[in-house]
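Thread amino acids onto this structure.
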């Protein structure tokens, strides 16, 4: 019983801390930021031998994600991708409901997403290199009741590394 009380106290403290945040996930994503206070967060980078415009055309075409990212089994987009557009996508047997918060062609895209009571912020930035390539950085944070029991930063890191590798292969092909 003591452990249950301890876990409930921790959950209550985390909830109260989340309520006290000055910026919502949508505001953070629109500013190209993740939640630095999230229990799960990662940042990964990869160099791609393709110009930002090509990388952008692949990454921002949500409808085609399943064609190059094997972890994604389906997508549905409510219109042409742009800030404010809603979309959903399926991965690992789950449907994630998302909204684009930041849309800067050839430069950055960020969205928020949720499934059950878990909330994510995913930010991608594209930086041109002197040799005509692109450095792609992805940052992601996840929050929610007891999310750490189901998922970890290590799990998220592996997933984001697969995204980056798949994007690199698609862009360099």
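Threaded sequence (173 positions):
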């Amino acid at each position: 019983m003591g452990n249950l009380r301890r876990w409930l106290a921790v959950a209550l403290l985390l909830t109260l801390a989340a309520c006290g945040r000055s910026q919502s996930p949508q505001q953070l994503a629109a500013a190209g930021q993740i939640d630095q206070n999230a229990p799960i967060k990662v940042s990964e980078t990869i160099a791609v031998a393709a110009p930002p415009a090509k990388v952008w055309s692949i990454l921002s075409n949500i409808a085609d994600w399943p064609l190059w990212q094997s972890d994604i089994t389906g997508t549905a987009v409510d219109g042409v991708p742009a800030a404010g557009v809603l979309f959903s996508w399926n991965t690992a047997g789950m449907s994630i409901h998302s909204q684009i918060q930041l849309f800067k062609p050839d430069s950055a895209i960020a969205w928020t997403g949720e499934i059950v009571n878990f909330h994510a912020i995913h930010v991608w930035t594209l930086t041109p290199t002197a040799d005509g390539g692109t450095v792609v950085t992805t940052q992601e944070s996840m929050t929610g009741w007891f999310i750490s029991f189901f998922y970890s930063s290590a799990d998220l890191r592996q997933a984001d590394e697969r995204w980056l590798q798949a994007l690199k292969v698609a862009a360099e092909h």
